[in-house]
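Q: How do we represent a protein-ligand complex in a form that can be generated token by token?
A: Start from the inputs.
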Amino acid sequence: MMKHPDETIDHGRRAWFGLAAGVTAAVAAPGVILQIASADPDPAPVTAAARWGLLIDTNKCAAGCRDCVDACDRENGLDRQSKPPSQSPAAWTDQKAVWVRKVKLADDLTGRVTNLPLMCQHCEHPPCVDVCPTGASFKRADGIVVVDRHICIGCRYCMMACPYQARSFVHEPMHDQLTQVPRGKGCVESCNLCVSRRDHGLASTACADACAAAGKGAIVFGDLKDPASPISLALRAMPSRQLREDLALNTGVRYAGV
Amino acid sequence: MARVLMSIPAWGCLGLTLLGLCWTLTAQDALAGDAPRFVQPGSRAAALGACVESTAFMRRNHMELIKHQRDATVHQGIRGTRYSLAGCIDCHVSHTPDGQPVAVNEKQQFCSACHAFAAVKVDCFDCHSGVPRGGPARSSGGQGGGVPEGDLRGSGQ
Ligand code: SF4
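Then emit the structure tokens for the protein with iron/sulfur cluster bound:
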């Protein structure tokens, strides 16, 4: 470890600024307080006290709706990627980074069609982490599976290992990235349950917010370890499954109606 | 005659060498004197007495601070602290006359100018944005600065 003059954070100062912000907000408009408070990041490390997850009720997910996919693209700056001039549109569709995919399941026998969004399933035992030779793929204490792009060498073993094809590789130099979502050529990436929102203490994910705003409410986000959280209550109330439950990965994303 | 003719270029060479040496020394002095000017006029940093640590410390060690912070952020979810890269960019970004931010890694801007001077390649901006874009996470998704003001102005060294 290197030495430098002042490593400690002055918590007194911090508290004072927090208080000052709160007081200003209270004077300005009571409705603003929550937003300012929630935009202030929590300085403490994440712990295993929470495990974040999603419950997707496929009965509520509509055919043709892409609101969650679009919201994810906007939240993470994926809508800022563009097709390299040399690439065919078909190849680009295959290759561009996608964190949420709309999937349609058709039962051959009954003809029943099910729509669902498919993203990183945030496994308790993630195969991507098992195979990663560098330690770039890892699971945070709160159960979110992330790629540390500083360490990723772009070998793409994790993409092969993922049973859900949830990961993308960035093939081209990136530009116009968002401050909260650094992305660049040569690294693998996938859904991180809006990790920046988690660290800022916000309540939900972009996809769940968009689905609710569209009036469908098919996606519930929350803490799987908190028995009183909406997601835990919903999981208790309705039958749900893990995709590829035969692999015993204990996924953090659950599906109802499949 | 031949000897005199020979000696003129020889003296000339020595003279040129001395002149060259003097010029190099002066140029180095001038460049060392220029170093503080990598802070862009009009950036928030230009109005502050010191960075999050003393200027001399930051010149030598900023990369260690950022690297330590990056691990804390990616692995432990600790954000918006004193040494966050978003904070560096927020404070050091300059603006065009019509108010558009100019990326810190653009030619002659804070990061790239000094890194060119030191001949050290900077990789941060392969992935990170060189301007504040999108702001910190908010449910409303508004534009805004990276870290709370209080964290940037602390040290006073
Ligand atoms: S691509 Fe990156 S994250 Fe994936 S296995 Fe290779 S090093 Fe690990």
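Strands of chain A lie at 52-57, 101-106, 113-118, 137-139, 145-147, 168-169, 188-189, 219-223, 253-256. The radius of gyration of chain A is 20 Å.
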